[in-house]
Design goal:
With 238 residues, this protein is α/β, with parallel strands linked by helices. The protein has eight helices and eight strands, in the order αβαβαββααβααβαββ.
């Protein structure tokens, strides 16, 4: 917690220096967000604050005005790690991650939040745990007696995905929804109580955050997910 608090203090100090009266400084026309990765543990000296601020906005202006000609830009993204022309930035910043987009009138500077390695098996384990919990719950004599009284001819299980699956995997990496479903299907097929349900479905849905889409220059509906797979009695992706 102590180390995390020191990093948070460093972030706040950096944004205080760069973000104060940001409206009076250069306003990019092609950059929606600049996310700064600080040199962690490098405390900004008071005597360096003005020079750091001047260099940052001068650098941002250069990146913005050469945005479309920048050979290191990848689509809407540019990751800058070279600050040889900006000695103060080189001292206090490790990198800047730029996201392209039209000017939106809001502050366009942030300090990179904490992150870390993500294990994609977490999504698989979450699906498996959900399946196991439902099988355990519906296998009890009380639940089976309740279902029998309703004279149901078939029992279906629908498992929902959602934001975490999208945030940690997206439809592309590190695991696709199909790969997660494959693992879930294999887990269910090997479970001794698999006969509890006649069919098992995995449904992943996510509504788009259109306010964020507008901010970053994406069209309405971008990021909306509607995805369905049958896990049992056979794997089938729709």
């Amino acid at each position: 917690m102590t180390r995390a608090q020191l990093r948070e203090d460093q972030r706040e100090r950096l944004i205080d220096i760069l973000g104060a009266d940001w409206e009076r400084e250069y306003q990019p026309q092609n950059i929606a967000l600049a996310s700064i990765e600080p040199q962690w543990g490098q405390k900004i000296r008071t005597v360096d604050e003005n020079a750091l601020r001047l260099e940052f906005y001068r650098c941002a202006e250069d990146v913005d005005q050469t945005w479309f000609a920048n050979p290191e830009r990848y689509g809407r993204f540019y990751y800058q790690t070279e600050f040889s022309a900006y000695p103060m930035m080189k001292t206090y910043m490790a990198a800047i991650r730029y996201i392209g987009g039209a000017s939106h009138g809001l502050i366009w500077i942030q300090a990179e939040p904490d992150g870390g390695a993500y294990d994609p098996r977490v999504s698989v384990k979450t699906l498996e745990d959900s399946l196991a919990n439902k099988l355990t719950k519906f296998a009890t004599p009380e639940t089976q007696a309740h279902l029998t009284r309703h004279r149901l001819t078939e029992h279906y299980l629908l498992v929902h995905g959602g934001w975490n699956a999208f945030k940690n995997n997206t439809p592309y990496h590190p695991l696709t929804l199909e790969q997660i479903a494959q693992s879930g299907a294999e887990f269910y097929a090997s479970h001794p109580q698999r006969g509890i349900f006649d069919r098992v479905w995995f449904f992943d849905s996510l509504d788009s955050a259109d306010d964020v889409n507008v901010l970053l220059g994406f069209p309405p509906g971008f990021g909306r997910v509607r995805w369905l797979a049958q896990l049992w009695p056979s794997l089938k992706v729709y």
